[in-house]
Amino acid sequence: MTIRTKLNSKQVALTAVFTALYAVLGFIKISPIIGLSQQGITAAAIIAPIIGILLGPYVGTLSTSLGGVIGFSVGSISPPSLFAGIAAAFCAGMIKEKRRIVSTITYLGLFLLFAFFPTVGPAWLFPLNTWFQILGLIILISPLQRIAAESMDSNNNTRMFAGFFLACLTSTLAGQIAGSLIFEALTPNPVALLGYWQTLTILYPIERTIIAVAATLISIPLMKALSLANMLPSTILLRRPVEPEKDP
Known about the structure:
The chain is an all-alpha fold. The chain has helices at residues 9-25, 44-55, 57-73, 79-96, 100-115, 122-125, 131-141, 144-151, 157-186, 190-228; strands spanning 29-32, 40-42.
């Protein structure tokens, strides 16, 4: 599979629009970041996996990187959120393109760095915190990742929803892990982070599930509309296959 993506003028414009939208949504806070005063998880977290799915892992990563840098420069996106969006877009794009090994290794690498971060990682302080992240890793390692990627191109609405949801859930978890890794580096205090991991053990699974559902509900109709308009880098028209005629 080639990694080169050809973009026409409409697709370049679409990428620019998503970059700007990502930066703007950084101003809309949907959840506070415990431990970072005046910072919050923003609506950009919802659109990050959507950008990866629609634009692919490379262009999607570029879009969230540029949008994140713009948001960071104006103070709307925190350092953890900046890296979280990049990771989420990349993983979502890889899942959509059926790059199972790359998406799994990326997620696993981020998880190990986060969990075993020296002295303050949850593996040392409160291992239970990682239970939902491990569930995301199991999804990626198991046949569920392949099923999700195939279901995203399905004409069955239920299968399509399930496929998009699994892709959005695992990719937003990858983003949460990447953001938490940056948070660890910025807050090397075992006492503070012990309370942080304990507090988030139940909260972040709820938060990430809500983000995944919202991203799924937005991405499916958007994917269909943009595909039919031939505006995606690798357009796959979501049409029913033509059934062969049966012999009388």
